[in-house]
Amino acid sequence: MQRIIAGFLAGLTFGAGLVVAGMSNPLKVQNFLDVFGNWDPSLAFVMGGAILVAAPFFRLARFLPRPFVADDFRVPTFQQIDKRLIFGSATFGAGWGLIGLCPGPALVSVSLLSPQAIVFVLCMTAGMLFARLVASLSMRRALKEA
Amino acid sequence: MTEFTPYASLAGGVLIGLSTVILLLANGRIAGISGIYSRLFETGPLANGKSAWVHGEKGWQLSFVVGIVLAPLLLMAGGFEIEQVFTGDLTLIAIAGALVGFGSVFGSGCTSGHGVCGLSRLSVRSLAATVTFMSVGIAVVFVLRHVVGG
């Protein structure tokens, strides 16, 4: 139960942060990406602010035996830069540029109930499930060959 | 045009950082939205046969997503105005949504997981991902606004 409450508080804070920062407005995100035109550099402050706050705690977490309400820390240790990472990130970047929404702001938009937000989230969800399917199929094939 | 809002954006960023810290210190997990949201759709019990909703990760993952969805409603109830302007039609929105969904899961992260958490951990892998999606995003907006729409 404590983990569920912590998750909820983190979600509320995250969602509020996205809205306050202006990331829930696709036009503002596109203006941030439009560095050769009407550049609005505001969103650099979002990532900067978030990293400034979070970075010291990621360092601190290394010295803690365990999290407050869970059994273990699960922080990725994988460091390899592979084709999947680059292809996936490039595809994500293309969609992000086309409309100006990434997954967090898309979920924030759901409660505004606009047809645009709903269509975006439905298609995003389908894309995510398809990616999970492709990834699990290729992993199965790799296991068979090994 | 949108207004340059360094203070509001910095404040929003601080809140996002705070959320990341809550999830890390309390639950020991990374606040990567594409990973958390997409895993909600994986079905089945844990390896030991217990419910993933009660004993596994699903419970907090769902409450995290519910928190994100409720946040704007709370802000609006408090008198905050939320502006949302889309520049494309529904077809373009559908295509973009599918690309964002597929790409973020296939590339193991989005702006939150790679951009915020990854860079905070000084992960080279996340840096490569962030540079890639930012550059492609910039290139796509350049083409949309200054080549096709110019």
Automatic annotation (TrEMBL), chain A:
**What UniProt keywords apply to this chain's record, in alphabetical order?**
Membrane, Transmembrane, Transmembrane helix
A Pfam family assignment:
DUF6691
Transmembrane parts of this sequence: 45-64, 85-107, 113-135
Name the InterPro entries on file.
Answer: DUF6691
- The protein's name in its UniProt record: YeeE/YedE family protein
Query: Which organism was this protein described from?
Result: Pseudovibrio ascidiaceicola
From TrEMBL, chain B:
Concerning its family, UniProt says: Belongs to the TsuA/YedE (TC 9.B.102) family.
- What this protein is called in its record is Sulphur transport domain-containing protein
What InterPro entries would the database entry show? Sulf_transp_TsuA/YedE
Residues crossing the lipid bilayer are 6-26, 60-80, 92-110, 122-144
In what way does this protein cross or attach to the membrane? Multi-pass membrane protein
Kindly list the places in or outside the cell where this protein is found, as annotated in its UniProt entry. Answer: Cell inner membrane
What the entry lists under Pfam families is as follows: Sulf_transp
Keywords, alphabetical: Cell inner membrane, Cell membrane, Membrane, Transmembrane, Transmembrane helix, Transport
